[in-house]
Amino acid sequence: MKKWGILVLMMSIALHGFAGPFTVKDIPRDVEREIFNHFSGSGKERRQEVEDAKEAYVRLQNKAYDSDIPKEDLEIIIVRLHQMYGTNFQKQVGEFDREVAQYKDMVRRVEEKVRLETQKTELENQKAKKEIEELSFRHGMSKEVFQAILEKAEEKYPKDFVAQKYFLEGAIEFSTLKNKMKTEVGVFIKNRLLFSYFIKKKCSIFKKLVDILLQNVLYTKYVHENIFRKEIHMKKLLSILFLTCSCFSFAEHRISWEAVGALPAQKSYDKNIGTAGLLQGMIDDYVIVGGGANFPIKPLTEGGSKVTHKDIYLLKESKNGLKLLEQIQWNTPIGYGASVSTGKEIYYLGGSPEAAHNKDVLKVSVKTEK
């Protein structure tokens, strides 16, 4: 209940004050009650203490009225004094001038900082304005195009010459890069027989692709809203064009895929459903694969367990595809190791699920008997 009374008192100070000149008659009831309840005892001494507190409260209010501090900030000072000294208004009157002096000093320092920052910003703004004038003589674009971009910058960032300058610089760099790219792409096309071939053949699909690349991939955009820049470089474009050439060259040199056989089932299983993480490589004209893992009983999604296999297959190319010459089982299962072919041997590093063998290095070779 006492906390509520203090809160009401502070609200009275904030809401009823500063209407001045202030008299004893203007003291709010809740403030008067708080002062009366603060002093104990009876008789003349208590009455004098109450009167002194009221007089101090009136002086505090008139000091606030005479100050040139905004009402909102003044209320903060008054409430702060009450929080520190309660109903000891004599003490509050004595501290009021010090609080006001501290407030004014803080305001002065803030205003000085704002003034310096504003001055600095204005200097940067004027410097950018002069740089914009210099850009108008060395932009490398037609006068009409530059003027249109300048008007767009002024519309987007009115009176902000720093942002306008960045906008213009981005547009100029984009224009320069675009022209440079067109020139280099022209040279690139002339020096590529594949490009010449397609141009002579009037390949419409290729022409459309080049147009798209020139219009969209040859794109450098500077995002000036936040003064961040993003750029697609010439090297990336040439890489894309080179890759495109290689793709088109498949018309003459296609990579073909076809089935040449199937591996038999691993020992103890009905069929080979395919494995991952195989040992693999070639020795002369022999193909060797083996090991690997799969889920031969049930898929993983149905709760199946992964099995790593021991089987190693020796295969050789024939008229009908790859022919199985031999199937053996290694001592331990292997899978997900690293295969290194040297021409005469295949080295298989690690890959065993068994802790005792997961650092093993397996050497595979082919023995031919005449």
TrEMBL record:
**Signal peptide extent:** 1-19
Q: What sections of the sequence does the record tag as coiled-coil?
A: 93-138
- Out of the domains of life, which is the source? Bacteria
UniProt keyword terms in alphabetical order: Coiled coil, Signal
Look up keyword Coiled coil and say if it applies.
Answer: yes
Q: What is the name of this protein?
A: Uncharacterized protein
